[in-house]
Sequence to fold (65 residues):
Amino acid sequence: MRSKNVFVISKKDIQSIALKKFGEKLNLEELEQIKKGVEFGLECWEEVVIEAISEVLEYRKKEIK
Fold:
């Protein structure tokens, strides 16, 4: 495996989206606000991962049969 992370949203990713969608970059304070919003939106990340694992294992079982 190349990276220990499964999913990462970098500041560069956020700035790229801000430029592409809104035509401007964000300052450090704005990036902190974005970070808090994303963290709030991902509070249930464990349930999302559990569901994704469940789907993968279900697919695997179907492939074996």
In short: The CA atoms of residues 8 and 39 lie 12 Å apart. The mean pLDDT is 93.
